[in-house]
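Sample 1 of the test manifest.
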Amino acid sequence: MKKLTLLLMMASLSSCTNLILDEDEPNTQSNNFEIFWNDFDKHYSLFTIRNINWGELYETYRPQINDNISDEELWNILSNLIEHLDDSHTVLYDGNGNRYRSGYTLNQQSTTEISEELIVSKYLDSVTEVPSEDHLSFGKVKDKDIGYIYLGTMDGQNPAAIDNVINELKDYKAIILDLRQNTGGDDRYSSRIAKAFSDGEHFIYTVQTRNGLDHDDFDEKKEYRTYSNEENPYLKPVVVLTDRKTISAGEIFLLHMKSFEQVVQIGDTTAGDFSTVSNMRFLPNAWHYQYSIQKFLLPNGESLDGIGHAPDIYVKNSQADISASNDKVLEKAIQYLFDEYQIR
Amino acid sequence: MKVSVSIVILISFLKISAFAQEQESLPMNYLGIGVGYSFDRIKDVNFSPLQQHGSSLFYSIFYERHAENTLKISIKYSDTILKSGRSNRFKSSTYNPSVSVTYLKNLSPEQSSNLYIGGTYELNILYMDWNGQDAFSYLSTNGLSVSAAISKQLTSEKNLESTISIPVIQFLSRPPYNGIDEYIIENQDDPLKIIFNSDLVSFKDYKSIRWNINYNHEISNRLNWKVDYDLNIQKVEKAPTFTSLSNRISTSLLYKL
């Protein structure tokens, strides 16, 4: 009797589960596509800014899907779909180490257009790494009265470390701040680093997060400004070097820096991907993905998403330049400081 | 502030009832510790379109004061890995602390079967993340529930009790529409600020039911042994929607003070 009661209890609990929670999402190729497309449709933030007709893309790609296609075919279809967004914050992962990043061709190519070893050996007298921070180092340009800072990420722990770096470099007549291959990170880190160069408070951008089903549903604009710095800002000429892989919080950093009078940007156009990325999203087949959920606008209402920061002086290295031990971007910065300020 | 208001209301209620109770019977005070197993299923649309499922140990420490009326204070904690996706490849870390205070007034004193009615204040936090916060979500509720209980004295040492609670005033904290927004980014170093950024919700937006049945056996003058079964269903209708079903079986030892 006791066993029967227990069995009845278990059965009632099981049916209770089915009553409360619907059936889980089926792992079919069609359903994986539908979840993926619909999730972007409801949450992705840049359809309007990037001029994407997401519904039209559904009509293009949905007919290619049936439950009998292979995983590889589904992977290619989803990759082709997100490539239209040209947004390297949109990434598809298969969980086995493979990933597809939208609009990443130029970013990827730029990795061969810079060489840390070349910079250190040919152009710098000395390099000191800041131990508490990832990819933050500084030194002096060989035979020049110019300081050099390399900042490869905005993901460090202590952005105030930049104050010590500036203190070390404050006597040089100019600083070259190398942001090439900056992988982004935390926007707050960017704003704190920029404070070291601040000539005052400037209104530089607004942020809105998508908050509804319509592609143009966004929350209230939040305004962001540069920090003012009453202590020891570095107000002598600063040249910021960029390339196609200067991205996200690296580009937010540029929004700060380009509002300061003494700053000029030399190099290639940046990636043009500003938004915070979403939480990781999941599919029944165990693939997962991320996308942009915000839009950043300049004070005049324009967006640099999909465009990037165009440099004041355009120059880029080719792979051949690097192979021939020449960093034309860094050389151009040194030449610019001589031409404009007679710094040698 | 919202937590404080709920606590003040509950304490006022307790004080009035405790005064009445002092004149009636000698209370029995118990301090207990318990351990149990929880079987959980969660569908949190903010976190994933997939259902998360798993089981875990949970722990509790509690105080009970039994006189004509009953006061129960408990703290519970569990953490576990919930699984989802093909071959359960997604494994999410889940943390679930809760604190509750229940006061039950006896409507039929001096009988072998008793009917109680009262209220519960509960703070319940559920936080889950995947791969070091590459994805995260949370549900935090705090507020008052109306509770009803029946108990049956089976013998002089054995007692059976069942309680049901339904929330009436609840403050709910959930992630925004897109999981992250400017507020979360700015306060990411202060998770309590995010979790307690709550709104008063209507019964339409948040529904929950908690049902407990327990068997209590006095094994000595100082020690009781208790077995509990708890069913907890939560449903957030407001986007991003959330549904959870939790079945818990636990056992505990109570020391008579």
